[in-house]
Design brief:
The protein is of the alpha+beta class. The chain contains 17 helices and 14 strands. It is globular.
Length: 529
């Protein structure tokens, strides 16, 4: 068992730096510069920390005082050295680039060219007209990103991924304006905005022009076999009925996009705004009795959500921030009276609404509501901080659930929200701890981003990777899932501690799959740490 565990990518020069030692270890540790071969720091370990999630006893090695840029490892007597890591101000540039490149490689309905994609190039896929479920009517809905390890395209997932990416760009334009080597790289528009626009153009095709409602998803009736490249899935494409959550999320993200594209393409930005308003108006007459349900002949991802309060709120907040129209402000107030909801995932999107309203500057806001929101954001962060402080790895959840890595990444942003409100560094440092967890400082000693660090997933539940027999670089996998939601973990990890219910196996869709909104979540976290 690996005993010394650090972030396999690295640490910013001015940030807190720590590694975890576990098991029977000495009381001191050393930090070694790998270029010079010299020990640059010797420190004492913390008192033991009982880690029930991982079934182990841990010790913290704090080496915050090491600030000289370079390559390092942690060593201790009787232990194998940690995997190497870097210290520097730009340690996350490459992993950020790889995570962003993933979206081009997930493009649907167009040729993904070899000069941009290498081995993962493929001809145009899923480019036949799709049938609207329950009718003989067809629609051209080519485009967008494949959602996950399969080839479905889902509006609620798309909206969250787009929102994450736009927020990441807003937080750190310099880092997120990098050249992504995509066909649009020659344009004056930043590559990230070009890539996001590819998804937005598909989303616009999913809106019903007459009513403004938005179709929930387009997939085949079932999932394709493993392995199969996207151009080889040739079953009928089926568009599922509209849903309130898809329509509200669409309204929110189109209003949001309006602000980002106005300086680059005013015609497109205004098109997004018109679509947002039409969806918002349609949303008023839609209701959610139990949430979206798959038709009986469809078994692909359901993305069911039993509450639409947070989706309606997010839409109102984004449209108010964009237009300043009082009717949206009234709806913000009305929705907040039902309670403040937090969440940056596809199920709970309340934090997107909170962020939009708290950052509204051009139009008047209700100062009492602002105070309530700020206090609620800080209270939520304090809860996460409590979880993180009890765990040697800084894990900020009470349990390891399906998609735990997404929640960890989202929690980094929740913690940053509290830092932005209070200015207290403890929140920012806790946010950084979440990123360290994802990049290798966890009980599995795995960097959960494919192709990064020393040890990362090689067999993700991702059909193109399976077909090419190599992991596509730059994908965040789902991470530990103590619910044992697939047969692979049930069979191979039945006795594992919760933190270790992770396996690098193609068949483990509950721990080793990838999605666009998991990648976007870690990118949003990386934009602020």
């Amino acid at each position: 068992m690996i005993q010394i565990i650090a972030d396999q990518i690295g640490y910013k020069t001015g940030s807190r730096k720590s590694a975890v030692l576990r098991g029977n270890v000495p009381k001191t540790f050393e930090v070694k510069n790998l270029q010079s071969g010299k020990v640059v720091y010797t420190g004492s370990l913390s008192e033991p920390v009982k880690n029930e999630h991982a079934g182990e006893t841990d010790y913290i090695a704090d080496f915050t005082d090491v600030t000289e840029p370079g390559e390092y490892c942690i060593q201790a007597e009787g232990c194998k050295p940690s995997m190497p890591f870097a210290i520097g101000d730009h340690v996350y540039d490459q992993v950020t680039h790889d995570l962003l490149r993933f979206f081009y490689l997930q493009r649907c309905g167009v040729e993904v060219q070899e000069k941009y994609a290498g081995v993962f190039a493929h001809p145009s896929c899923h480019d036949t007209p799709a049938r609207i479920h329950g009718t003989n009517q067809t629609l051209d809905v080519r485009g967008g990103w494949h959602d996950a390890g399969d080839y479905g395209r889902y509006i609620v997932a798309a909206a969250v991924a787009v929102a994450d990416l736009l927020l990441a760009y807003e937080n750190d334009p310099a880092q997120f304006e990098q050249d992504l080597n995509i066909p649009e790289s020659t344009l004056a528009v930043p590559d990230l905005l070009s890539e996001v626009r590819f998804e937005l153009e598909w989303m616009l095709k999913m809106q019903i022009p007459e009513s403004g409602e938005v179709y929930h998803k387009v997939t085949c009736a079932g999932f394709p076999d493993l392995p199969v490249m996207p151009e080889d899935e040739r079953e009928e494409l089926i568009i599922c009925p509209p849903s309130i959550t898809a329509t509200a999320d669409f309204a929110a993200v189109m209003a949001m996009a309006t602000r980002f594209y106005m300086d680059y393409d005013e015609v497109f930005a205004k098109r997004c705004l018109r679509a947002a308003i039409k969806a918002y108006d349609a949303m008023q007459g839609m209701f959610l009795p139990g949430g979206f349900k798959n038709p009986k002949d469809i078994v692909t991802g359901e993305y069911c959500d039993s509450s639409d309060v947070d989706e309606r709120y997010w839409a109102a907040a984004e449209l108010y921030k964009t237009t300043g129209e009082e009717r949206y402000h009234e709806d913000v107030r009305r929705q907040l009276k039902k309670g403040i909801i937090h969440g940056y995932g596809w199920t709970d999107v309340g934090s997107f609404g909170n962020a939009a309203y708290l950052s509204t500057r051009q139009y008047p806001v209700d100062e009492d509501l602002i105070k309530q929101l700020e206090q609620s954001v800080v209270d939520y962060a304090n809860m996460l901080l409590g979880y993180a402080r009890k765990d040697a790895y800084g894990f900020s959840l009470p349990e390891y659930e399906w998609g735990s890595n997404m929640y960890v990444a989202n929690n980094a942003y929740h913690l940053y929200d509290a830092y932005r409100i209070t200015g207290k560094s403890e929140y920012l440092e806790a946010a950084r701890e979440q990123v360290h967890y994802l990049l290798g400082r966890n009980a599995n000693a795995v960097c959960f981003v494919t192709g990064s660090g020393t040890v990362s997933p090689e067999n993700p539940h991702h059909r193109p990777s399976a077909a090419k027999r190599q992991a596509m670089c730059g994908m965040l996998v789902g991470g530990p899932d103590e619910g044992f939601h697939d047969a692979c973990t049930q069979e191979k990890l039945r006795d594992a501690a919760p933190a270790r219910v992770y396996i690098d196996d193609l068949d483990s869709y509950s721990t080793n799959e990838v999605t666009i909104y998991w990648n976007s979540a870690i990118l949003m976290a990386l934009s602020v740490v």
